[in-house]
Amino acid sequence: MIILNIKKIREDFPILKRKIKGKPLIYLDNAATTQKPIQVINAIKEYYEKYNANIHRAIHTLGEEATEKYEEAREKIRRFINAKSTKEIIFVRNATEAINLVMYSWALNNLKRNDEIISTIMEHHSNIVPWQFLRDRIGIKLNFLDIDDQGFLRLDHLNKIISKKTKLIAITHASNVLGTINPIKEIVRIAHENGSLVLVDGAQSVPHMKVDVKELDCDFLVFSGHKMLGPMGIGVLYCKEEILESIQPFLYGGDMIKCVSLEKSEWNDLPLRFEAGTSNVEGAIGLGAAIDYLNKIGLENVREHDANLTKYALEKLSNISDVEIYGPKNANKKTGLIAFNFNNVHPHDVSHILDDEGIEIRSGHHCAMPLHKRLGIESSARISFYIYNTKEEIDKFIEALKNIKKILKI
Amino acid sequence: MSEIYKEKIIDAYKNPKNFGRLEDADIIIKDVNPGCGDEFEMYIKMSNKKLKDIRFSGKGCVISTASASFLTEFVKNKKISEIEGLEKEDVIKLLGIELNPVRVKCALLPLMIIKAGIKKYKTMKNVRE
Fold first, then answer.
1. Does residue A365 belong to the interface with chain B, where contact is any CB pair within 8 Å?
2. How far is the C-alpha of A172 from the C-alpha of A353, rounded, in Å?
3. Cβ–Cβ < 8 Å for A400, A320
4. pLDDT digits (tens, 9 = 90+) for A143-191
5. What are the structural domain ranges in chain A?
6. What architecture is the A6-30+298-407 domain classified under in CATH?
7. Is A239 one of the catalytic residues?
8. Which CATH architecture has domain A41-295?
9. B37 and A408: CB-CB below 8 Å?
10. Do B2 and A407 touch (CB under 8 A)?
């Protein structure tokens, strides 16, 4: 076990020096987006100051350098998730776009009426809405796995509802509300025995734990760069090469072609076939720098730090009366986030009052309205941690939370 | 401490006026704040091109509930045209607090529903200006 030097890590994040309403910033909304270390900011700055050019086409030095860095970032991502080849790493805008790519390029062309997709009640809207579109477009059926009272997936239901009609299981690796980590390896085994593919939403897992696509054997993995120290507007679709080779492109235009005549066009090789138009070069380079930073710390240490903070916060929260916590109470079985409600106070008010103390937390339905309905609530408040958070920050959060009663006179 | 959680706001939140239902409502209409899923249902009784009575039900935050309380009180016995003319600034004036853009959405939810209710009533009754 290595104890992270949090003080040193915090120095890498310029934003942590700022004050909110005169109070030091306590940033507890990392499941929405993380802050960026100076190394990532500098990587983007350096790109624009030293080698900005459009990639893949230019013969000149700048173009060559930019292309090299862009492809270097792709290789860093390949290694990070242990993909077989960089052909399997597609740059997209975010996890949502990656799911849409899979829906339009693979599902729309390969599924037919009465085929089925299994998803879960704990999905982010991004892993529900595209499949609803597909259902309405071609008449597939959607089934959703439920959760138990503790917020774990009812895996026993999977064997009951999976059938030869099931073409895809679209599931989150970790819930952005409950924090629940789903047994993806087991689900992939069941799916593959049945001849179904598996899409894993890794938006909440890839930033926080070691995710190995070879070990999981999933067919698709999607995640966003901005939730893992990288810039916004860059995300990744991992897809097995044989699937990518067999499906139609998503977007059409420049860069994704080998040869164009007025009669027809020939598609480019992987992965560029799926990256039409000028790419988000600064995004890819920034994400590459973020991965370097995470590798330096070590994903196992990130996971341990998250779990320590979560355990501490769960203990503190359970000591306050009238706090209802959603999802598993065991920090080792969830990612570093806790959704809760406090004393019937609306989460917007909780968030607003905490903001007056410089504490930034999430409130609302967190793009998971079906899950909130399942929990019997409209909305919740959520704290989520990352490498720069401390127990002292959690203490201040707890103190501010207790103070809400006084402010609202309850 | 926050500027927005003033006594009159918190009082209106804890004991909102016109909370409940109207049995003889001409219009029952609800809407939701997509940002948080808050939902209010308004019961509106009309008479002689005026809003005669109004109740609301649902669960919201301090700001949206206080806004519903003040606004339902304000629109009673007002002419359709007056209610149609109500703007963001009028709601903020009723509340007497400054709000950031996200919380303005909370404050405006009740007004949006009342205006939609009036529109529905006009379509139903084919009311002319």
1. yes
2. 31
3. no
4. 999 999 999 999 999 999 999 999 999 999 999 999 999 999 999 999 9
5. 6-30+298-407, 41-295
6. Alpha-Beta Complex (3.90)
7. no
8. 3-Layer(aba) Sandwich (3.40)
9. no
10. yes
